[in-house]
Please model this.
Amino acid sequence: MTTPLLELHGINKSFGAVHVLRDVDFTVYAGEVTALVGDNGAGKSTLVKCVGGIYPYDSGEYVFDGHPVHVHSPREAGALGVEIVYQDLALCDNLDIVQNMFLGRERRSGLILDEPTMEQMAAQTLDRLSVRTVASVRQQVASLSGGQRQTVAIAKAVLWNSRLVILDEPTAALGVAQTAQVLELVRQLADNGLAVVLISHNMNDVFAVADRIAALYLGRMAAQVKASDITHSQIVELITAGRSGDIGLAPAHASTAADIDLDEVD
Model:
């Protein structure tokens, strides 16, 4: 697509005297996975929370589907079709998959819960995402593996006519096989036409599924490039120094190689 689904222009966000985001530009396209990378403290979580309506940004422009919008709450972000899957997943172990997917958004038939409709919608969503690792939508979440839990959290996010899904470290603490399953699901979301933002520290995961990579450095967007146009080592340099050759921030905002330790970046 030529027109981004999400465009952020000149986003600034401060917490007291701490300037966390500085004139950040960020674009996300439908049908693509955009990896958002950066060292700890680079501003990734703050940027995502501004997109999700959790934090109000101080200045800048938020454009969604070609129209400037003002998002003041998660509810308003959700109305646009923005859903965020946080690292803690926010699932209830004592509830089953259907109950978790509809938690707070239950369907009713008169005064009682419409269990058959919710069960059907949950099953259809998992089927649409080609999920084969869950035996029954009535399994309790407590009985699921880490990869299955992540799958349920992602399915919960796309159940509500989502257009942009943001995933915060979805493969953290997962084994090799479970990581492969989750990455396959991430790719499936984009192939289904959704815009996906993947936050990750794992460069192997990033290059496995990302169409574009956006690198934050100390609150500034160092670069946003196609994954096919950049190498692993260049991304590491953007993360740790803000610049790699001709790519990245102006020298005044970037570190020198003497200031960083590449061994600290995974």
